[in-house]
Amino acid sequence: MSKADFKFGPRIAAPDYAKITTDAQQQVLKELGLDRPENVVAMARPDLLLEKASQIVQQADAELGLHLAERDKAIGHLWFYEQRLGLAKSAGLTHTGYRNVLSVVLHGNKKQPVGDFRTVPELVAAAEAAGVERVDNAEQKLLEAAPIVVAARARRETAIRYQHDAVLALLRPPYKWSTDKIADLAGIDRKLVLRQKYAAEKRETA
User: Fold this and answer.
1) Which residue in 49, 20, 54 sits closest to 33, CA to CA?
2) Closest CA to 93 of 81, 78, 82
């Protein structure tokens, strides 16, 4: 797709995603009652930490479930039907992440390249043929959904780290909890408990 052949719409000013991410991370620490996250297990009961962290992860997953598709639909409309530049930055995505969104919107598969379109009519025709949805007020919807997605992912990633630490602590002395007991408290599958244990151990030795 040659940009020289396209007339682009105006860029969309990006929210301060760095601040959104930092604020979300700090909010998780506050909810977990942690002032010094590097000493997480020593500073909190791991069973309570696991329960709180798991709740945060579940809440973040629910937010992603509500807003991720809305963000992606807005991105799809803004590129395929309005040819807006800078959408990766506007949505708080890496370039790769942005291309993956376009591939999923157009092809249903992030591994399939969007394709090379020489003209705007070709781009629009491909989108229409693929059933890419037109979205009213797409710019507004992007700016509403994208910050929620960024914040939810930051909250999830932060909470997951402490969930891993709590799992590892509960498996070790003096607790020696079973994986089934941990899974029940966290509301997760037993196999995930073991994966989280291995992740925490890997971080310990890194």
Assistant:
1) 49
2) 78
